[in-house]
Amino acid sequence: MTIIRQQDLIDSVADALQYISYYHPVDFIQAVKKAYDREESKAAKDAMAQILVNSRMCAMGHRPICQDTGIVTVFVRVGMNVQWQGDMSLTDMINQGVRQAYTHPDNVLRASILSDPDGARKNTGDNTPAVIHYEIVPGDKVSIDVAAKGGGSEAKSKFAMLNPSDSVVDWVLKMVPTMGAGWCPPGILGIGLGGTAEKAMLMAKESLLEHIDISELQARGASNRNEELRLELFDKVNALGIGAQGLGGLTTVLDIKVKDYPSHAANKAVAIIPNCAATRHVHFDLDGSGPAQLDPPNLDDWPEITLEADESVRRVNLNEVTQEDIATWKPGDTLLLSGKMLTGRDAAHKKMTDILATGEKLPVDLTDRFIYYVGPVDPVREEAVGPAGPTTATRMDKFTRTMLEETGLMGMIGKAERGQIGIDAIRDNQAVYLIAVGGAAYLVSKAITNAEVVAFPELGMEAIYEFEVKDMPVTVAVDTQGESVHRIGPQIWQAKIEEKTLNLV
Ligand code: SF4
């Protein structure tokens, strides 16, 4: 019989969450580096360079890889010979570990969890509760996987109950383009197949904990149906040309994972859950000898890449930029922004459009300004702001026309593509939409020299800040004519990949 102390479990969960907030799994870094080396699309290669540089900075500085520090997801396998010392439930112990990790003073993480999701949407303040899955297994240890799942990638999850004769490959290839770039590729697709509706979703999530090993599988060949699916989907999804951050390129997925379970004769459940550029998970066992010891990775495994601005990069002073200037920007252009910008995301946009609907004045003047869709991590020590990468812009699409037409806003900065209503509003108002790299949040925060809350402080990380930035790297995603890099880039790269494949035949 093994006795596990309550505090050991709490400390282990807290340590694991701190660990994964700044250390990518090494297999993920190696897979991104491999994709970076073979990438031929300049925009996608630049995006992966930023992800790799950001990762190394986070590993060295012990600050979060992404401003979205995730919803905690835990898989626990409890041995039947384990006893607990302490009076808390296992769920309470895990949540105490979450609380301890997310409020750690040296590396405070962002509290992103809201209770009453269709009502008051009130922040719980410490990122609790976690989503926990239990299994009782033979043995005398507790085996735990801890993950912190980004909201942007979770939002792109898909599920279908196919007819038994339907093709899983066809369905996945139909779904992936509809996921856009809000899941911050390159990443991994977890696929759950069979069982029931909820079992398929759970398997898709659990498969993301597996080691990235597609190269080994390619070398040895498939030995069962799941492996055949992995190989076929890996090639076919990458052939879509979506590329890193949806900019068009050779690598969209670093691996495809498939888990299956026996199914009812009438059903073929299938689920996709993507893991993003901020893939974060770690495994540990507790055997009664104390809290888990998580060794720091060897930083030699992180490539040293230097980000260099070539002569095509334009430097833009946001304090002086004019309508004539922005009209010359084209999709795919790289800019280095300096000067002042405002921030705002979902809750701030809702509030601002509600105020505008009443005819009242906004608390901030948006005339000729840029707004950055971001919810930063709180700063520690000498930081102006914590990691502050972009959030998914499509969520702001429904507010965009009002914001542009009623406030004089000049441009927006976010991540991933815009929906058609957003693009129409941008074109009709000759505005622009720029993107920063999702999953490079600490790197972006280094370009922010000052941050001040200027409106709606009650919204916490969703408040409106004014940022002062110096050389913040962005890419033009939608120009004043409504042309979108997320439409053009994948089209070009899909055709190029097709041509390459034909030449090989
Ligand atoms: S990398 Fe993208 S999807 Fe992942 S947590 Fe960060 S912003 Fe969200």
UniProtKB/TrEMBL annotation:
Residues 288-487 form the Fe-S hydro-lyase tartrate dehydratase beta-type catalytic domain. It catalyses: (S)-malate = fumarate + H2O. It is an enzyme of class 4 (lyase). Residues 11-284 form the Fe-S hydro-lyase tartrate dehydratase alpha-type catalytic domain. One of its GO terms (molecular function) is fumarate hydratase activity. Keywords: 4Fe-4S, Iron, Iron-sulfur, Lyase, Metal-binding. GO terms for biological process: generation of precursor metabolites and energy. It comes from the Bacteria. Its cofactor is [4Fe-4S] cluster. The keyword Metal-binding applies. Its EC number is 4.2.1.2. Homodimer. PANTHER family: L(+)-TARTRATE DEHYDRATASE SUBUNIT BETA (PTHR43351), L(+)-TARTRATE DEHYDRATASE SUBUNIT BETA-RELATED (PTHR43351:SF2). Catalyzes the reversible hydration of fumarate to (S)-malate. Belongs to the class-I fumarase family. This is Fumarate hydratase class I. It comes from gamma proteobacterium HTCC2207.
